[in-house]
Amino acid sequence: MTPEEAFFTLHSGLEREGPGDAESLAWALEAARVPRAGRVLDAGSGPGADVEALLAAVPEGQVVAMDLHRPYIDELAARLGVDARLQAVAGDMREPVGMFDLIWCAGAISGVGIAAALAGWRAHLKPGGRVVFSELGWRIDNPPLEARDFWATYPAMRDRAGIRTQVEEAGFRILADRWLPDAAWEAYYGPLGARIAHLRAEAEPILSYALDQGAAEIDLWHRHGSSYGYLQVIAEPAA
Question: What is the mean pLDDT of the chain?
Fold first, then answer.
């Protein structure tokens, strides 16, 4: 088993791949004012935790779920089916096909970076179209050393001001932002913790390492989660 296979074994069957919940999605959709007949891209959809709520938000529209990891797309398509209102596509989320009223990206933007993602999405936003994404950042000026060491490999982790600056430098205007609440983290870490416990008994060394890392991440959040969080941002092109 490779480290990549161990990661996806750990995450197989989970509803979501990062913090998020129904309340946070509803807050963002209200702020973004997506039209009932809107076309929505779920960029980096994972297994599609938010797809059904996005479909409900555009009852006369369409949702395109896109992820680079094909098994997630296959899982989503098998669970929800694919029809005129839902397309499930394996591919680079920076290069979707068509135009969108809303591009939704829950916790996946770090894989490509804010600047690259916004640059790619800009050409795919309809007039008045908006982007909603969440990105991990520091909530305090001097986070604990343990938290800084753990997240040292996370791409260019910034504070709130730093995230906002990246958005503005990419030519977007921020309409609203807020830190995801604890409930959004619990919606992710609860099932992940249960999955880790389930896999412990017969785990080979490489998988055991992945389980240890997952458990350490959950434990870190319980002890130092007030020092970091996911900033949820609603933005639109500035011009």
Answer: 93
